[in-house]
Amino acid sequence: MAGNKVVVRTRRADFVPLRRARTAVTVLFALGGFVFAGWAVRIPSVAHRVHAAPGELGLALSAMAVAAVATMSAGGVICRRWGAARAAATAAGMLSATVVLPALATSVPQLAVALTVFGVAFGALDVAVNTVAVDLVAALNRPLMPALHAANSLGSLSGAGVGGALAAHLSPAGHLLSVAPLGVVAAAAAGWALTADPIPRAQSCAGPAAAGHSGWIVVMFGVVGLCAAFAQGGLDNWAPLHLRADLGVSDGLAAAGYATVQGAMAVGRLTGSALVTRIGPADVLLVGGVTACAGTTLVASTSWPSLALAGLGLAGLGLANLFPLAVGAAGARGGASGVAVATTLGYGGILLAPPTIGFAAEVAGLPRALLMVPVVVAAATAVGRALRRHM
C-alpha cells in the first residue's frame, strides 16, 4: 500500500502462477461467504427443529462466536506453523464439511457443539485467507484487498439467495448437505493451486527504525477494523427492525434494508481497488468514513423510509473498504499475527454491536441508539487518518 509497501518486481514468467493464485484466493473468499450465508438463512428452521427458545439459541450462537474469536487469536501461530495457504484451504474445506452439522442437531446442546466446530473453521479461515491475501497484494504490488473482500460479499449474497430459493424445497440438512461437497471440492482445488505455485511471503513493511512501533500500529489498525465491523454489525442487526418498528415499512421492505447494505458494500469493494490505485488507501479510508457517517446519520435521523434506504446505501458504500484496508495494513505491518489481531478485533466489533445498541435502545429508543454507529465510524476515520503515513 502507498508509502508502506514492499515492491516486488514480478517477472513475466511468474505472472501466470500469480494470476492462478489470485483466482484461488478469490474462490476462498467467496466460498467463505457462500457457506456461512447458507447456514445463516437456515437458522430459523434449525432453531425450530431443536425447539430452541431465543435465549437458548443465543447461547448456541455465542458458542460459535467464542470458538471463532479464540481461533482467530491463535491464527498467526497456525499460519506460521502450517503455512497460510495450506491453513486457508484446510479451513475452507473444514467450514464446508461442518456446515451441515448444525442442521443435523436434535437438541440445543448438540447444536452448540456443532456450532463450536463450525466456529473454529470460520475463525481459522478468516485469518488464513486474509494472510494469503496480504502476501498476494505484496507479490503483485496491486491494491487487491477490497476486490477480494468483494468476492466474500458476493459469495454471501449468492449463498443467501440460493438458501432462500431452496428453503421451500429442501430441509436445512438437505440444503447444506448439497453445499458441503461442492465447498470441499472448491477448497481442495484452490488449495492445490496455492501450494503448486506458492505466493512469495510478504515481508514486514516496518523498517528498523519503525520496528519498535509496529505493535501499536497493528493494534490501532485493528481498532479501525473493530469500529468498521461494529458499524456493519449494528446495521445488519438493527436497521431492519428500525425500518419495521420505527418507520412502519412492510416486512419485505425491512428485509430489503439488509440487502441494500450488503449490495452497496459489494459495489464499493468491487470498485475499491481502482479507487485505491487512483487516490491512495488513506484517502479512500477518509472518503469512505465520511460517506458512512453521513449515511448512518441519515438512517438514524430521518422519518422517511426512502431516505433511510438511501442512507443505508451510502453507509454500505462508505463502510465497504474500511475493514479490508485495515486488515491489509495490519498484515503488511505484522504479517499473519497482524492479520490475526485485526480480524479478532473486527469480529469482536461485530459481536459487540448488537447488545450495545440493544441496551442503548432500551434506554433512549432505537433511533437514538443507532446514532452510536456514525460516532464509531467517525472514530475509525480519525484513527485511520492519524495512521495515514503507515498505509
Verbal overview:
This protein is mostly helical. The protein has helices spanning 12-40, 43-49, 54-73, 75-82, 84-98, 101-104, 108-140, 145-166, 172-196, 214-246, 251-270, 272-279, 281-301, 305-319, 322-364, 366-369, 372-386. The model is unreliable at 1-13 and 204-212 (pLDDT under 50).
Protein traits:
17 helices; Growth Hormone, Chain: A; 391 residues; single chain; disordered N terminus; globular; mainly alpha
CATH class type of the largest domain: Mainly Alpha
* pLDDT averaged over residues: 85
- How would a crystallographer describe the biggest sheet? none
- How much of the sequence lies in strands comes to under 5%
Helix content: over 70%
Silhouette: globular
* DSSP strand count: 0
- At CATH level 2, the architecture of the largest domain is Up-down Bundle
Stretches where pLDDT is under 50 for at least 5 consecutive residues are: 1-13, 204-212
Kindly report how far apart the N and C termini lie: 6 Å
In CATH, the topology of the largest domain is named Growth Hormone, Chain: A
- Which oligomeric state applies? single chain
Radius of gyration: 20 Å
Number of helical regions: 17
Structural class: mainly alpha
CATH homologous superfamily (4th level) name of the largest domain: MFS general substrate transporter like domains
Order of helices and strands: HHHHHHHHHHHHHHHHH
Counting structural domains, the number is 2
